[in-house]
Amino acid sequence: MLAVLSTLSIAAHAEEPKISFSGLIDMFYQSNFKKSATGSSVNFRQFDVTNNSFTIASVQGTAVMKPTAENPWGFTLQFSFGKNADILAATEPAGPNSALKYVQQGYVTYQGKNYTLDFGKFPAWVGYEGIVAADCDHYSRPFLYTLAQPIYHLGGRASSTVGPVAVSLYLVNGWN
Fold this sequence. Notes:
This protein is mostly beta strands. It is 7% helix and 41% strand.
């Protein structure tokens, strides 16, 4: 059995606000009908690791200010609290108790005439599944996700379109 609450957007004005806020609560109950080799855990899973339990995986809050014609600067800031943040921070260089573990993504954006530049921490652009549950086509994050793809990158990215093709260039500091 799996339950996920979808994104809840909050807007303070009838017109489009300069900064938009949204959030989600990602929670589930999991039962593994096959006894796990490690006892009460589920093998080869990134986040849903505890058998026969209810888990609040993530409580997220996001603030976004998109660049406009009047102001080419914007930002995205997303905080995440819960079991997922704890699991991701377990091997971080800053340590599992660092306050930075709660920043799921945070970057500034500059919108040029025909290009966009982003600098900061952002989710990986490669891989089969994403970090934000509401943006995933399915909700599993199994072996492939756990061991074969990055979660986030720190650095810069440039994006543009060349005719009908979207082109991006990334300069990032490693993998997670």
